[in-house]
Amino acid sequence: MTLRNVGDLPVLPLPESFALTAAYNDDQFPNKVNLGQGVYRDNNCQPWVLPSVREAEETLHNQQVNHEYLPIAGDSKFLTKARQLLFGPQIASSAENISSLQTVAGTGANHLAALFCARNLCPKNVFISDPTWDNHHLIWEMAAPNVTQRLYPYYDPTTRGLNLDGMLAELESSAEDNDVVILHACAHNPTGIDPTREQWKKIAQVVRRKKLFVVFDCAYQGFASGNADADAWAIREFYSMLFTEELSSSSSSTPAGMFVCQSLSKNFGLYGERIGALHLIIPPWTSPEGAKAHLVQLVRAEISCPSLFGARIVHTVLDDAELCTKWQEDVRIMALRIKTVRALLKSELEKIGARGDWSHIEQQIGMFSFTGLSIAQVQELRERHHIYMLSNGRMSLSGLNETNVAYVAGAIRDVL
Ligand code: LMR
């Protein structure tokens, strides 16, 4: 084997969302606008520490907590609350077949899921939505290099809606037993288009028939509707349709399992604290112990055990009925503000006669708008107008407010 000279390694580009933030921070133009990274901003386009989180910080400060190691699987009190948030109290309290581990945010959960699948499930393919969060590709490339990445149709540019037929046809015709399919649980990144409840049921039926292993990525719970329970509907429905006791008689058509990658970064505004969880669901008539032990071993090799602060904050908020209600209100405020700027941008574009139909901006949901702007137009927005967004046309709407929306709309009209 030839030892490579690390000095010869080529320089790689930064992932786009981080490169955009760096470029925006360096930009000296006073009216610059950051619509790049998927992070919530308040009405002054500033980071927002949720009031419920601030209160939890004070509580923790007064408790004078220590800084001992957590167990490898994470803080069990945090995991109980995180599981309830995702699955609802009823499923969470009775489901022996859900194993949960604390992770380094949603990315860590996705990575752990990919590693586990590559080593233990050995799928031939992983099906990824076209388009998706760019990190899905990188994570699977790094953690599961022997698994072939395939795109399934998701976004239909002609209708600016979901291409459900294309998606189902691709899974029906190309997926094999135990292949993995990554689904965005809500507020799809980057398109802002989610399946309806009827469409989710059709997807679950194909998953069952083809015995696919779903990896749900749940990064934006609360951002689609303003309500965390409503946004977890698809996950709970898949659980009921695929993994409950009543199905045992038809166990031959049950997938081997399902992962849910849960981020608490966005809905608690704890971006830099890197807090998340991975939940493994297996059929109720199989034993979770072996799979859990293998996940624990992977965590031990990667990070030894997870970190404390984010878990403590989330647990403190969710464990206190009053604080939990305040947090639900915080989530509603964030979702509502984004909805409000959607409407503002659309009406501003229409008011100034920007060419085209802009109704999709208001119809899409969650943190993003998939604007339909081309790579060249996005580049021009950045170079001439100091407006930063992803080259695929994704706009992170929380960078907009009443003050800059007219400037952004004017710039869009200009580059069309
Ligand atoms: C995004 O999609 O912009 C965020 O999730 C940040 C990231 O990691 O890319």
Please provide a written account of the structure.
- It is a single chain.
- With 416 residues, the protein is α/β, with parallel strands linked by helices.
- It folds into 2 domains: 15-50 and 324-415, Aspartate Aminotransferase, domain 1; 69-319, Type I PLP-dependent aspartate aminotransferase-like (Major domain) (Aspartate Aminotransferase, domain 2, 3-Layer(aba) Sandwich).
- It has 15 helices and 13 strands.
- The structure holds (2S)-2-hydroxybutanedioic acid.
- (2S)-2-hydroxybutanedioic acid binds at residues 17, 37-38, 133, 135, 189.
Q: Roughly how many Å apart are the termini?
A: 53 Å
CATH second-level architecture of the largest domain: 3-Layer(aba) Sandwich
The count of helical stretches stands at 15
CATH topology of the largest domain: Aspartate Aminotransferase, domain 2
Large-scale geometry: globular
Give the CATH superfamily of the largest domain. Type I PLP-dependent aspartate aminotransferase-like (Major domain)
Poorly predicted regions: none
Unique ligands: (2S)-2-hydroxybutanedioic acid
Mean pLDDT: 96
Overall number of domains = 2
Extended strand count: 13
